[in-house]
Amino acid sequence: MPHHYPLIAAISIGFVLALVFGALALRLRMSPLVGYLLAGVFVGPFTPGFVADARLAQELSEIGVILLMFGVGLHFSFKDLLSVKHIAIPGALVQIAVATLLGMGLAAAMGWPAGSGLVFGLALSVASTVVLLRALEQRNLVESRRGRIAVGWLIVEDLVMVLALVLLPALAGPLGGNAAAGHSETFWMDLLLTLGKVAAFVVLMIYGGTRFIPWMLERVAGSGSRELFTLAVLAIAMGVAFGSAALFGVSFALGAFFAGMVLNESEFSHKAAEDSLPMRDAFAVLFFVSVGMLFNPAILLSDPLPVLGVFLVIVAGKSLAAFVIVLAFRHPLSTALTISASLAQIGEFSFILAGLGLTLGLLPPQGHDLVLAGAILSILVNPLLFMAIDRLQPWLDRREGSKDATLHEAASEPVTLQGHVILVGYGRVGSRVGAGLIEAGVPLLVVEYSRDRVHELQRQGLHAVLGNAAGKEVLALTCVAAASCLLIAIPDAIEAGQIIGHARRKNTSLRIIARAHSDAEVDYLRQHGADLVIMGEREIARGMLAHMQQAESVA
Ligand code: AMP
């Protein structure tokens, strides 16, 4: 029966198993990634039982890539992108060259011809968007200087891979593969055409996209329909990604990134990010499931040494190259460590490249299997690398005087406050509360994840920390143990519950006042330890009633 509905089977079984294994992994104090990958191995063709459609699973996971890159674009302006070009372009190019050479060396040691080595090396040189962005997001690093460098680096890698995918067929003959696949004479034409299309895409997005797309989103927002707004957000992300891949030959990821970036200035970019969040997270999980599906565990036994070699090229060789390059550009040690950990893995592009190599007769099947094994192993250890950096963080902070080292870089200086009020969220609710407290002279510290708002507050000389308050690391910078009161003025009750949990553990006498939008949320937040929960809708009703009563008494 499930075979009649391969799409539903892939999505539902993927979600259910990922949830079960992810929760189990978390229980065992491991990264949920381990669980998602295992879930994939379970539904993959190499283990008994149900086998999901691997092609479908991969296609679904591309939706995760598209939405992730769209989300990153929403927090990125073209200026931000240009500001990291001095490091991202040479960094990515040198790192790709080093990793490719290492891969070629490994291939030569296995007795493969140089052409195979080149494809193999290229496949090992490119990091996975999903793995990188998830790691950065979990640490609130996407908007930090190092996060921006990593994203810029990723985009350069992405462009190089787009070129590689187009040029490989033309080069297949001279490199020793299927000569019939393409004509080497067309190499320069193909190169020029691809570069021309990428350039046309960028120009079109910058000059046309920046005008049309925000205008359209604002019109839809003006219609007042939430449903249409969400639909518009998804249509923009998916439509631009697909359209740019189909028309200009750029990757889905790059198309989606630009779609987000042209919306960056729009006042609706935050809401757009929020709207695409649940779908994005769910489909990013399917990415890991699909990687697990491709993995054949037997290779660990049949080819242990080549697997180890591939693993070392990805995790040690590539990251060492990135580390040295970042330091050579005089960036702090913590930046170098974060960038190299971010890049110490491979993923979707490597599979596409290895698959193409296989069809062009450039890569032996063993090479394809090794790339897959390298991907799953490097993705598995990636959270450990980040954990190691987290451990080193206090030392790095001391060493670097907390300049770029903290989660929110120069945007928030570490402060020492006592008896202060912590206000989380400075939007419609928080800014009104904040204004009142400032007027009353109450010592205040704001936590906000909107960079612009934090900068504005800091310009006014106020204490403001940039980051998601639900992260323990962010809360640790608010001197919560010495605070008198915590006001949570954000609309998301689940995040508010997490914030309350962390804060309560650090300060049992803290007075916590939270915001809710339903009776269930009120109960939920009180159970988590809020002293008082103000329900928005109840207050609006009260305000209306009071107004009516006053009007009647006047009449
Ligand atoms: P509003 O709903 O208009 O009161 O806006 C809520 C504000 O809280 C916005 O400015 C958001 O940027 C901010 N915000 C929402 N969630 C968080 C969070 N977890 N950490 C920090 N700021 C947040």
Please, could you describe this protein's structure?
- Helix 21 links the parallel strand 4 (485-488) and strand 5.
- Residues 402-412 have low confidence and may be disordered.
- Helix 6 (114-125) crosses helix 17 and helix 7 (129-138) packs antiparallel against helix 8.
- The longest helix is centred in the middle third of the chain and has 36 residues, at 187-222.
- The protein has two domains: 2-399, Na+/H+ antiporter like fold, CATH 1.20.1530.20; 409-554, Rossmann fold (3-Layer(aba) Sandwich), CATH 3.40.50.720.
- By secondary structure, it is mainly α.
- A six-stranded parallel sheet has the order 3-2-1-4-5-6, with helices on both faces.
- Helix content is 70%, strand content 5%.
- Residues 424-430, 447-450, 453, 468-470, 489-492, 495 line the site of adenosine monophosphate (AMP).
